[in-house]
Amino acid sequence: MVIPYSFFTNKKNTLICKNCQQKFKGNFCSNCGQKSTIDRINLPYLLKQLSSNVLKLDRGFFFTLKELLFRPGHSIREFLAGKRKAHFKPLAFFLIITTTFVFYLNFGIDNTAYDMNVDPFISNSSGNKVINTDRIFFFFSDANNIAITTLLLLPLFALCSFLVFKKSYYNYYEHLIVNIYITSIIIVILGVFEVITSFFENLQFIFWIQIIPSILGLIYTLWVYVTFFSNRKNKWNTFFLALIVFFLNQLVFYFVYGYLLHLLV
């Protein structure tokens, strides 16, 4: 589906660029070069990105990172509305963030702390077998597992937000873009704390300090949705729906987590 630029400002077919608001004629904006028509976010758009300079790192990456850190909801809404010239493509942005994070986990820290040869079950004081939480921690700290679980969860996260905000204008693939950007920044937050925890050797301390990025992830997710749907009249209703999305995502996470843990046993 192709979305035409806003509207004709006069009978001579003068258009208004959605990226820079410049009036122009023809197929491209004379000021910034963006096309006069834009594709709506859908499956063909996402697939097209995979074959168009996916790993090309230019100034758009750092601009997008800054925007997502300081004005995420507004920035994502502008991207979906057509202001895309300065933004780094979402799939490429996610792949670079994830690749950097996985590379650091594989080579930037002592991998002996993530030994997967830990017994998945231990005996409690009564002699009964219970799940070894260290095994859980090791599993989700393993770089390859993080990459796999993230790829599995993203489409499900998008489905949750799409269903909860089903009365909004945005389709499923546009919700997928929102969740790609949210997840990318959450991975950045996790990466910062991985660097911090790499200076400590106490696994119990490391386990508990991981609660902090989880809390920050919740705050960031709510912030994105509330500002993304800032045009809604009832802000508290948006906040409540965003909470529902977050907890649905948690249920999805623990469902996938339980299934993967079952595969380990």
Description:
The protein is mostly helical and 265 residues long. It has 2 domains: 1-39, no CATH class; 40-264, no CATH class. It is built from 10 helices and 6 strands; from the N terminus they run E-E-E-E-H-H-H-H-E-E-H-H-H-H-H-H. It has helices spanning 43-50, 59-70, 72-81, 90-107, 133-141, 143-164, 172-197, 203-209, 211-228, 235-264; strands at residues 2-4, 15-16, 23-24, 37-39, 121-123, 129-131. Strands 1-4 form a two-stranded antiparallel ribbon. Strands 2-3 form a two-stranded antiparallel ribbon. Strands 5-6 form a two-stranded antiparallel ribbon. A hairpin with a 6-residue loop joins strand 2 and strand 3 (23-24).
Question: Spans with pLDDT under 50 lasting ≥5 residues?
Answer: 1-11, 111-121
Indicate the structural class: mainly alpha
- Helix and strand succession? EEEEHHHHEEHHHHHH
Mean pLDDT: 76
Distance between the termini: 47 Å
Write a concise synopsis of the structure shown.
This protein has 265 residues and is mostly helical. The chain contains 10 helices and 6 strands, in the order E-E-E-E-H-H-H-H-E-E-H-H-H-H-H-H.
Summarize the topology.
Elements: E1 2-4, E2 15-16, E3 23-24, E4 37-39, H1 43-50, H2 59-70, H3 72-81, H4 90-107, E5 121-123, E6 129-131, H5 133-141, H6 143-164, H7 172-197, H8 203-209, H9 211-228, H10 235-264
Antiparallel strand pairs: 1-4, 2-3, 5-6
Helix pairs in contact: 2-3, 3-9, 4-6, 4-7, 6-7, 6-10, 7-9, 9-10
